[in-house]
Amino acid sequence: ITIETGDPKAIPRVDLKRQERINLLLRIQMFLMRYYILIALFIIGILISYSYFSIYPINTIFFKYGHPSDINLKENDLLTKVEFIDIKLKGPEAITFDKNGSLFTGLRNGLIVRVDPDGHVEKIIRTGDEVDDHICDDESKWNLAVPPCGRPFGLRMKPNSNYLYVADSFYGIIKINVIEKTKQIILHSNDTRFGNRPLKSPEDLDIEGDDIYFVDSTDKHSLNEAIEDIIFSYPSGRLFRYNEKLDQLDLLLDHLYFPNGVQLTPKKDALLINEFSYARIIKYFVEGDMKGKSEVFIELPGLSDAIRLTELDTLLFINPSVIMNIWPKYGLVVEYDMNGNILKSWHDKTGKKVKFTTNAVLHDKKLYLGSYTGDKIAIVNY
């Protein structure tokens, strides 16, 4: 065919849209040829993820309750009227008192300490390895899979004794003589009786006679990776009973949603377990006609941490103030009766005075508040 270049009508027209489609198909083909292995792996990953999240779906509990002031709790500023014991050491997570009224707490650097009202700190012992303090005070070491210093969480003094029982997130259940300053790991996280599900994050415990009840928040991740369990609400937590005298271990409840608090009821016939990811309290019966069964005890007004019984047979719960900057900053302590009715609440609407509270203990008509990240123990009038 002879084409005269001077005649524009004789120039073959190109269908630009069609050509764009062809070019796109060619680019896709080249991409597939070059990256087919990566694409295959990506597709496999999607299939695995679909299977995984069909078992452990993303939970919306973070947004279930909204701001704590939305519920039937009268706002106040009681949580802003606080005094502080400045211990200058980070992470007094849990608080307990011995028979003489001495305060004990566990720190992020693995130390168990006795704290005087003026802030003087006496070292008792470290739950992990006895290494130099400067190593354990190095925050970069806290993100190791198993920090050598340990991380004590739940604390309980055995009544009328010098023994402090500790749930350490990395090492298991530890018994400490606070006078002799000695320790014994009575149930290690890697005890063979746990089989292929070793303890990953023991969080809290309670004691009745020779029985130690404790919760393991997750069997999937250690403390430093447990945020995934919280976000996706994996039902991988467990409740155990360990009889120290008989050296007998029993699994009582499985598939709990990040349990991080446990408390015996006043009658000792049941346990209350805080499911952090579901903002609720489960009641598990250890005696009576309901023995071995469980039920929902309370739907909480927000994500909570440890549970503690007062000498008035009431229950104290903590809202940790802020979770990963998702939850609004709001400090909250709530007191319930044993029927699940709210009796009293302490509020800090800004969450600035008491940050990331984790534990509330009533002692001598005052509330003592622990903190996961702070370096002070807050005291509020009851």
UniProtKB/TrEMBL annotation:
InterPro entries: 6-blade_b-propeller_TolB-like (IPR011042), Strictosidine_synth_cons-reg (IPR018119)
GO MF annotations, alphabetized: hydrolase activity
GO cellular component, as recorded: endomembrane system
Record-annotated membrane-spanning stretches: 35-53
Gene3D superfamilies, sorted: TolB, C-terminal domain
Residue ranges annotated for the Strictosidine synthase conserved region domain, each copy included: 204-288
Keywords, in A-Z order: Glycoprotein, Membrane, Phosphoprotein, Transmembrane, Transmembrane helix
Family, per entry: Belongs to the strictosidine synthase family.
Name assigned to this protein: Strictosidine synthase conserved region domain-containing protein
Species: Brachionus calyciflorus
